[in-house]
Write a structure and sequence with these properties.
2 domains, GAG_Ulvan_Degrading_Sulfatases, 164 residues, Alkaline_phosphatase_core_sf, 10% strand, 4-stranded antiparallel sheet, Arylsulfatase, C-terminal domain
Length: 164
């Protein structure tokens, strides 16, 4: 999950309780909708397509998960989708690092062997395999189909957050 599992730290005296934590999945894209909520500004329908308001989580309110699905974009513009413990990629490879590059600074030495060579994509259980070393694409077709369909829906609509 290189670059996708990082701490989010917020400080707002009098609003955010010091030392509080949350298990909510949040993204930097959420700052737009959150700033909009804080300032009570309405976001235009064509902006912040993947931004959720995380203010309730920041304020420590007991809420349901903010989002059911999280989109991730790689350096090569490929998309991945996460739901709960599951992460699906509709392509092979990391989408970012070029493991074929050799030389002293090359990434080839870090490339992992393909463990599901017949798979057309990738599926990982991030709770049991945060290093994404075991591709479960062929073992969990029902999860692959759900996440694949949702990813395609988001691609077609151009957004993962409905606005009214």
């Amino acid at each position: 999950e290189g670059g996708h599992r990082v701490p989010f730290i917020a400080r707002w005296p009098g609003k955010i309780k010091a030392g509080s934590t949350s298990d909510q999945t949040v993204c930097l894209t959420d700052l737009m909708a959150t700033a909009s909520a804080i300032t009570e500004a309405k976001l235009p329908n064509n902006s912040a397509e993947d931004s959720y308001n995380i203010l309730p989580a920041l304020l420590g309110q007991d809420i349901e998960p903010i989002r059911k699905y999280t989109l991730h974009q790689t350096m090569s513009l490929a998309l991945a989708i996460r739901s709960g413990d599951w992460k699906y990629l509709d392509h092979k490879g990391s989408g970012g690092n070029n493991y074929n590059r050799g030389g002293e600074w090359g990434m080839k030495q870090f490339a992992l062997p393909e463990k599901a060579p017949g798979a057309r994509g990738q599926l990982y259980n991030l709770r049991t395999d945060p290093g994404e070393t075991t591709n479960l694409y062929l073992e969990k077709p029902e999860i692959v189909e759900e996440l694949k369909a949702k990813l395609e829906e988001f691609k077609k609509s151009g957004r993962s957050v409905p606005r009214t």
